[in-house]
């Protein structure tokens, strides 16, 4: 009986963890460039002496949904969308390089180009990109950042740097706890994207299917309730068995 209780308990735990992933997706349904997290379970036999009769239901992380989100034209010079498997390189809070598809950019009062979450954009040399005082800033399709200095005319437009845009497949990236992507193999450098690496004046939305996520949340809740019912039924049967043994003794 305890084997059945153990399997049901691990299944309920995995269902709760999967609900957490779905809830995280729903919370980011409006986050620009967000990629929905995937969740799955697998049977994991427990090793030890005796027969291999105990099996753990374990949550596994298959990665994220790499499909592109809906594009929306904004006409804003600092909004960019990335095609294919292109990712913007940013500096994480710990100073390490990370990657995002959130192209909603802005310039801080001290002239740093940052994402909507405040992470500095990196240039092609891996350094945070700083923007001198300017009356106009434009980002080209190849990632070059150009400005018109304050008080000057269009003929004085100058390039101040180029955004680092990398080409990385889903298998090469892992999502960190801060929502940014990192390389699955830190020893392997990601190649720079070539050609038209981004599109300005456009934003990519989240690829979360809110309706589908809500249905999945309901299914997981019902699954959890069923597993809890199995645990309660098993406990009731164990108590009844103990009562019969006491009566028989």
Automatic annotation (TrEMBL):
BP term (GO), one: bacterial-type flagellum-dependent swarming motility
Location relative to the cell: Bacterial flagellum basal body
ATP-binding among keywords: no
A single Gene Ontology CC term: bacterial-type flagellum basal body, rod
Record carries keyword RNA-binding: no
Primary residence: other
Residue span(s) of domain Flagellar hook protein FlgE/F/G-like D1: 82-146
Domain Flagellar basal-body/hook protein C-terminal as annotated: residue spans: 199-244
The entry's keywords: Bacterial flagellum, Cell projection, Cilium, Flagellum
Domain Flagellar basal body rod protein N-terminal: 5-35
Database matches in SUPFAM superfamilies: Flagellar hook protein flgE
Subunit organization: The basal body constitutes a major portion of the flagellar organelle and consists of five rings (E,L,P,S, and M) mounted on a central rod. The rod consists of about 26 subunits of FlgG in the distal portion, and FlgB, FlgC and FlgF are thought to build up the proximal portion of the rod with about 6 subunits each.
Protein family according to the UniProt entry: Belongs to the flagella basal body rod proteins family.
Name of the protein described by the UniProt record: Flagellar basal-body rod protein FlgF
Taxonomic placement: Bacteria, Pseudomonadati, Pseudomonadota, Gammaproteobacteria, Lysobacterales
């Amino acid at each position: 009986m305890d084997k059945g209780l153990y399997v049901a308990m691990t299944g309920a735990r995995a269902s709760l963890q999967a609900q957490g992933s779905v809830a995280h997706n729903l919370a980011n349904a409006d986050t620009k460039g967000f990629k929905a997290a995937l969740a799955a379970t697998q049977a994991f036999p427990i090793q030890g002496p005796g027969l291999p009769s105990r099996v753990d239901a374990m949550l596994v992380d298959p990665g994220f949904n790499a499909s592109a989100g809906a594009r929306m034209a904004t006409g804003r010079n600092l909004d960019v969308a990335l095609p294919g498997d292109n990712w913007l390189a940013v500096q994480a809070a710990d100073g390490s390089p990370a990657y995002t598809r959130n192209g909603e950019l802005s310039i801080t009062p001290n002239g740093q180009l940052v994402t909507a979450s405040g992470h500095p954009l990196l240039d092609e040399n891996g350094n945070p990109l700083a923007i001198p005082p300017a009356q106009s800033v434009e980002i080209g399709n190849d990632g070059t950042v150009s400005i018109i200095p304050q008080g000057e005319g269009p003929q004085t437009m100058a390039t101040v740097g180029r955004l680092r845009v990398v080409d990385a497949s889903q298998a090469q990236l892992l999502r960190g706890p801060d929502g940014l992507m990192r390389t699955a193999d830190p020893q392997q450098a990601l190649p720079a994207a070539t050609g038209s690496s981004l599109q300005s004046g456009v934003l990519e939305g989240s690829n979360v299917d809110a309706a589908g996520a809500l249905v999945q949340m309901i299914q997981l809740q019902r699954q959890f309730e069923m597993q809890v019912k199995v645990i309660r039924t098993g406990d009731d049967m164990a108590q009844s068995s103990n009562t019969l043994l006491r009566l028989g003794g």
